[in-house]
Every structure is written in C-alpha cells, then in structure tokens.
Amino acid sequence: MAATVTRIVSTPSPIPIPSSHHKSRRAPPSLLLLRPICCSSSPFTENHSPERYRRDSWLYSSSSSADLPVPSPLPPRDDAPSVATREHDIAMQLPELRILLQVLRDKRKCRCPGDGSDGGCGPGEVYLVGTGPGDPELLTLKAVRVLKGADLVLYDRLVSHDVLELVGQDARLLYVGKTAGYHSRTQEEIHELLLNFAEAGANVVRLKGGDPLVFGRGGEEMDFLQQQGIRVQVIPGITAASGIAAELGIPLTHRGVANSVRFLTGHSRKGGSDPLFVAENAADPDSTLVVYMGLATLPSLAHKLMEHGLPPNTPAAAIERGTTPQQRVVFSDLKDLADKIVAEALVSPTLIIIGNVVALSPFYSQSRKEAAQLVEA
Q1: In angstroms, rounded to a whole number, what is the distance separating the alpha carbons of residues 364 and 34?
Q2: Catalytic-role residue among 23, 107, 178, 339
Q3: Choice among 156, 211, 333, 336 that is catalytic
Q4: Known catalytic residue: 78?
Q5: pTM (2 decimals)?
Q6: Which architecture does CATH list for 50-62+83-106+122-238?
Q7: For residue range 273-324, what is the model confidence (pLDDT) as tens digits?
Q8: Same fold, 50-62+83-106+122-238 and 241-376
Q9: Is 208 a catalytic residue?
Q10: pLDDT tens-digit profile of 106-165?
Q11: Which residue among 136, 189, 294, 347 sits deepest, i.e. has the most Cβ atoms within 10 Å of its Cβ?
C-alpha cells in the first residue's frame, strides 16, 4: 500500500516540530502537506503575472497604454502564442533598456574623464547569485549585500517575491525567466544583456533560484562573460536539495542508510518524456537520488530505476514549492509516486527525493499513519 498524506487544513494534534522549523510567517510543514492552493498564489514570478509587470513597470514607460501587455494571474496555456507574445514583450522593453544603457554609459564617462584608463574605469562586474529554494531567510549575507548595490538585476522565475523585496531601491529589475514552452529570453539573449550592461560599467546581478551552478546554467554564463573579459563573481545559494530536505528533516546521507547522494535533472534535452540521464548505477539502494525538474519525466525515470533493480517500495517524496508558505508534499513508495503526484495535481517547481533516507523524516511516519487510518475508515 502506498502511503500518502491526506488533505489536511488543520490537525487537532500536529506533529511536534523542531524549533528550527518554527517560522512566524509559515505554518509547520505538517499542516501544509497537501493543502490545495491556486496557482495565482505562487511565491514565484509566473510568466505573465501581475507581480511581474508591476516589478518591471519601468520597462514599459515608452509604450502606450494600448500596447501594454495584459497581466494574468495564471500561467499561459500550452497552446498560447508564446513566440508572438515574447517578441511583442521584448519590443516594448527595448526603448527603456537602451535608455538605461545610455544613462550608465554617461555616468561612466563622468566618473572616468579622459581616455578612461584610470583605475576603476573598466567594465562593471557580474554577480551570479543563488537565492536558495525560496525562503528569503536562507540567503547568504553576501547575497543580500550585492542585491542592495546592484544597478540591474536579471532574475529568473524561481526567485521568490520575498527575495526580490530585498533588492536595492535604485536597481532596475528585468525578468528573464523560463518555463516549459515559454522563454521570456533565450540563453543567448541573456548573455548579451549581461555583457552589454557590464561593458557600460554597471554592477549586474544575475539572480537564480537555488545555487547558480547546480542545474542553473550559471557555468555557461560565467564562461561566456569571462571570455569577453568581464569579471564574474559567484555567490552560492542553498540548492533545493539541501534546503528542502532540511525543511522536512530528511538527511540526504545517513550512516548505515545512504552513503552518497546524486543530483539528477529530469529534463529531456529533446523535450520528450524520457529522462536525460538514467544509468544502471543510479539505481543504488545505498544512495539518495534528488531529481530536479522531473515532473514530466518521472514515470519513465521511476520505471527505469526499478528496471535496474531499485526496489519498488523505496520511500520517495515530491515537494512542490519547497520552503515557501505554499509548500505541499506527497510521500509514497517509488512505484506509486507518479500516480500520487498526478492525483494531487502538483505543479512546477517540484523536487523529487528517492531513497531510504526519506523514511527518516518525521512527516513520513505521520503520512503512513494517516494512510492506515483512511484504509480502516
């Protein structure tokens, strides 16, 4: 029997939560395991959400009200004309981006008289900053300091609203997020934006969820900029695997249970349902598997893992919007996890943890008890 949690809004006697889990703005995880939520309450920046256009409103100052994009609290449908929408959005933003670029160039000229050969008159710097899985209290002090001093912040979808509130008042924000089927900017366009503004002398922050060098394409951006002579500093963030596992009390390694941990991407390079990476040695019962971006490919991944010898009853968890107030969790055996995710309609971002260490979470045992009570009823 697969164990999963019930739809709990409140419980008469919740699981005791360690003090590290008590946060004034978020209920204990035991009360948020499968509370139904609406996508409009997302803690992150959806492609065409009102929050995005309010935050980036400076970009549309040169556009007439008739041309302005229409914000929607819901993500676009799969059949929406995403290419035309993207191109229209970029066209409206270009005038203000050019104005900002010229302002920064002029400031640099004033700061650097003559031929600009004096010290401090070179290009600006780019900071690749990781924001963790969503909870702003997980940011590093260095990340907060850099956010306060930025001229321009290019931020991804999985940077929470709470984190963006920490950006300095004088900074300009530009959404460059990507979701399946809609990229507000291509990777090449992001490279050019970073380069152009850094060359103008700006301090540019590239803000990414989690850690910028763990499935965040930060390495590509760093390599491109360094080849152009731009200095890049990487400020690490708590990757989702560490932050979310800690939130649920799941040790990624544990003596006698798991002697290693492996991070996998669930994305298929060709956009299909087949996982990008599944190897026979990934099906190791002594290892913990953490799958990023794996909702679409989990059925195929789970099948291959079991085919290569991972027991079907291996404990597993799927965590939607981990460490945020909208966090939801499904616990299950590996063989049933994909069906449970569909039944509970989990959405991206959802992290998947597979391995015997999942059973060490205090919330896992609670989910088993609740499942047994439902069967008895």
Answers
A1: 13
A2: 178
A3: 156
A4: no
A5: 0.82
A6: 3-Layer(aba) Sandwich (3.40)
A7: 556 556 566 889 999 999 999 998 899 899 999 999 999 999 999 999 999 9
A8: no
A9: no
A10: 888 887 766 555 556 789 999 999 999 999 999 999 999 999 999 999 999 999 999 999
A11: 294
Token pair listed for 263: 């991070």
Contacts of 164 (CB under 8 A, 6+ apart): 45, 55, 155, 173, 207
**Which residue of the set 293, 333, 336, 340 is catalytic?**
293
Domain 241-376 in CATH: superfamily? Tetrapyrrole methylase, C-terminal domain (3.30.950.10)
